[in-house]
Design a protein that fits this description.
Elements lengths: L18 H13 L22 H4 L8 E7 L7 E7 L2 E8 L4 E6 L8 E8 L5 E9 L9 E6 L3 E6 L5 E5 L2
Parallel strand pairs: 1-7
Antiparallel strand pairs: 1-4, 2-3, 2-5, 5-6, 7-8, 8-9
Amino acid sequence: MGRGSVTSLAPGFRFHPTDEELVRYYLKRKVCNKPFNFDAISVTDVYKSEPWDLPGACVENTFGKNLFEIVNKFQKRTKLSVHCYSGNDDLGIQYLMNGQEQHWRFKDAFFHATVFRCELKHGYEFQNYQTFVAYNSKWKNGNHANVTWLAVERGLYQIWNHRTPEFMYPWI
């Protein structure tokens, strides 16, 4: 793919890089104050947050083994509106700036399929949008419990269990 494509990310960038990749590329650049064009290792000042707000910011402290996430990977400064819901569960509207991501971890329903739908919007007055099924428990063929959605200029890419991104939907 070309230079501006989704697959031209930093070395080893798969949302869960190996320890060696973290040390060799990301931590070394972070310590030396060398720039990289996305924030792979975020710095959080816990003193600016209330204690009861911190657990919601940590994916590991939430329940469930299934995960879906949405990542704003636009090249230019773009605010992405994210609204996801499932049955009676409305996850609210989140706003993601470039490089930001939102995770949701959950358990599948016992008696019926678990389906999360999301509506993403961007552009002038959020005129560009796409509504899609972000997660469906029927997709799981053994190991499809984790799905990542990349929002880029062209549309939405889907990644199963940290594999190669696959183009799924253009913006409407």
